[in-house]
Amino acid sequence: MKKSLICGISGQDGAYLASLLLSKGHIVYGTSRDAEASSFRNLETLGVKDKVKLESMSLNDFRSVLQVLIKVEPDEVYNLAGQTSVGLSFAQPVETLESIATGTLNLLEAIRFTKAPIRFYNAGSSECFGDTGDLAANELTPFRPCSPYAVAKSASFWEVANYLEAYNIFACSGILFNHDSPLRPSRFVTQKIISTICRIAEGSPEKLILGNTNIQRDWGWADDYVEAMYLMLQQPEADDYVIATGKSHSLQKFVETGFAYFDIDPSDRIVVDQSLFRPSEIMKSSGDPSKAKLKLGWQAKHEMQEIIAKMIEAKQ
Q1: What is the CA radius of gyration of the chain?
Q2: 21 backbone φψ class: left, alpha, beta (φ>0; ψ -120 to 50)
Q3: 204 near 155, Cβ under 8 Å?
């Protein structure tokens, strides 16, 4: 039986990945900065918390990372940890860089130190591409990061590429575009939208307060995307992949689709607040998942309208 270690198992992707790996017969370990104090609510929601072995680990502490790797002796390591909010990264740029770039480097260096044949997956981000305009980004598209979060993710991507080339470690990055589910934290704009719309549908007089609604994103379903992570580590050679639906929609369209689920006219329900605009913003982001379809046999099973419906239904 394979042993898999998921760093950042308490998050949305970590919980779905744990559930998937367990279904594949893996022994699953997961880490959190303080495993005894963390709630692991997402694992409980999916009914898998009691099936996962939990360890405390701080990615910023090399000794902590090394100790866990030596103890667990995993066949696969999935790095999903680190600060996950683009907006928060502007307020906490140093913590963002350390938790993502330094954390990834510590994992790679610990794998190199142990000399174990560990396969390593790194969570990249479409934010690294910046604004691609009408062009769908693929694996050869240059990075033009527009936030501290994207800068940190870009650094971690090149760390992975360096360790693959320099030390022949099986290491790869999944460049994932936006993906959501009911497990998203409330600070994410999609979860904020769905929660507010559901309250309005129940009679709340509140308004939905948003920043720039003209931005366009390629939205996918998180449970689909963790399957791509798994497939990347089952390949004969390590490689990087863009994971996306291939279709982009505006945030305005996302909101309108949510209100349409309840047949509510959104025209007087939305307030655009200039204070919520970011210092620098990606206006349009879209991905080309052709390589993933060709080499992994992977493609997204859910599109935006179905994703919105599933998120709403989870709250009912």
Answers
A1: 19
A2: alpha
A3: no
- Examine residue 293 and state whether it is found in any structural domain, yes or no: no
User: Going by C-beta distance under 8 Å and a sequence separation of 6 or more, which residues neighbour residue 284?
Assistant: 131, 132, 133, 134, 215, 216, 248
Same domain? 28 vs 174: yes
- 60: domain CATH number is 3.40.50.720
The SS3 of residue 284 is: strand
What residues are paired with 137 via a beta bridge?
287
Identify whether residues 91 and 123 lie together within a single domain: yes
Half-sphere exposure (Cβ direction) of 256: Cα atoms closer than 13 Å: 8
pLDDT tens per residue across span 170-196: 999 999 999 999 998 888 999 999 999
When divided into structural domains, the chain yields a total of 2
Helix H or strand E segment including 17: helix 12-23
Q: Cite the active site residues.
A: 125, 127, 149
pLDDT over 90, % of the chain: 87
The answer as to whether 272 is a domain residue is yes
> pTM of the prediction?
0.94
Residue 165, in any domain of the structure: yes
